[in-house]
Structure to design on (217 residues):
C-alpha cells in the first residue's frame, strides 16, 4: 500500500540550500513528500525564491509586525498548522522559538544543526570546532524541543577537520553532508521508519544513538 506523500512545511531564514536539497530529492523521486509551505522571518530569504520557483506556497512574516517574540512565533506556527503540515523542518531557521509554541510540535518538528551535538549548540559552530582543535566536525538532525538545539539527536554526519581548514572550508564541506543527511531523515519519517512516541523510535526500536547516513539509506 503506497503512503500518501507526507505533508512537509519548511522554515528557513536564509539562502535555503538545505531546502534546495529537499526539493531536489523530491524531484528525483527519492523523497515521498509534498511541500505545503515554506515560511520565513526574512522577506529577503533566498529560500522563498526557491519555494516560488518550485511552486511551493511561500510566506514571510515580519517580526516587527508583532508585539513580542512569542506573538510572532504563534502567528508563524499558526500558518504552518493551517498548511496541513504533518512534519515541520527547520532548515537554516535562525530564531529561537518560544517553548510553548514548539511544544505543540513535539515529535513533528526537526532541525538540522551544523555541529556534532551536544557539542556547540547555538551559533558559530565551525569556528568553535576549529578553536577547540577538534579532529572531527559534523552535522546533527534532531527533534525540536524548547531547549535550543537540545532535542533528541536522530542522525549525524561526520567530517574530518583538516590542518588547513578554515571556517569557510569547513562550512562548505559540511554543507554537502547536510544536503545528504536531511533528505535521508525526512525520508525515514515519510516512510514511517523514524517516528516519535514521546521519544525517537527507529524501525520499532528506541533510538539511543544517532543514525548514520548508511543506516538511513
Ligand atoms: C546550515 O549550515 C544549517 O545547518 C544551519 O544553517 C545553515 C544554512 O542553511 N541551520 P541553508 O543553506 O539556509 O539551508
Amino acid at each position: 500500500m503506497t503512503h500518501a506523500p507526507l505533508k512537509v512545511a519548511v522554515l528557513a531564514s536564509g539562502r535555503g540550500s538545505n531546502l534546495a536539497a529537499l526539493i531536489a530529492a523530491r524531484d528525483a523521486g527519492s523523497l515521498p513528500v509534498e511541500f505545503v509551505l515554506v515560511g520565513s522571518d526574512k522577506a529577503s530569504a533566498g529560500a522563498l525564491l526557491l519555494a516560488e520557483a518550485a511552486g511551493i506556497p511561500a510566506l514571510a512574516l515580519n517580526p516587527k509586525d508583532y508585539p513580542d517574540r512569542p506573538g510572532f512565533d504563534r502567528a508563524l506556527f499558526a500558518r504552518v498548522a493551517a498548511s496541513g503540515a504533518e512534519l515541520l523542518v527547520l532548515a537554516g531557521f535562525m530564531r529561537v522559538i518560544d517553548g510553548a509554541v514548539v511544544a505543540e510540535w513535539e515529535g513533528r518538528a526537526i532541525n538540522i544543526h551544523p555541529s556534532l551535538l551536544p557539542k556547540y549548540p547555538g551559533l558559530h559552530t565551525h569556528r568553535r570546532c576549529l578553536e577547540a582543535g577538534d579532529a572531527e566536525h559534523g552535522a546533527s538532525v534532531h527533534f525540536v524541543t524548547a531547549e535550543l538545539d537540545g532535542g533528541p539527536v536522530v542522525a549525524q554526519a561526520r567530517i574530518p577537520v583538516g590542518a588547513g581548514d578554515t571556517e569557510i572550508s569547513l562550512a562548505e564541506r559540511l554543507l554537502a553532508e547536510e544536503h545528504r543527511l536531511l533528505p535521508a531523515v525526512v525520508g525515514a519519517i515519510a516512510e514511517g521508519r523514524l517516528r516519535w512516541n514521546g521519544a525517537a523510535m527507529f524501525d520499532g526500536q528506541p533510538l539511543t544513538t544517532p543514525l548514520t547516513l548508511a543506516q538511513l539509506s
Remarks:
- The first helix runs from residue 17 to 27.
- The domain at 6-216 is CATH 3.40.50.170 (Rossmann fold).
- The CA atoms of residues 195 and 201 lie 5 Å apart.
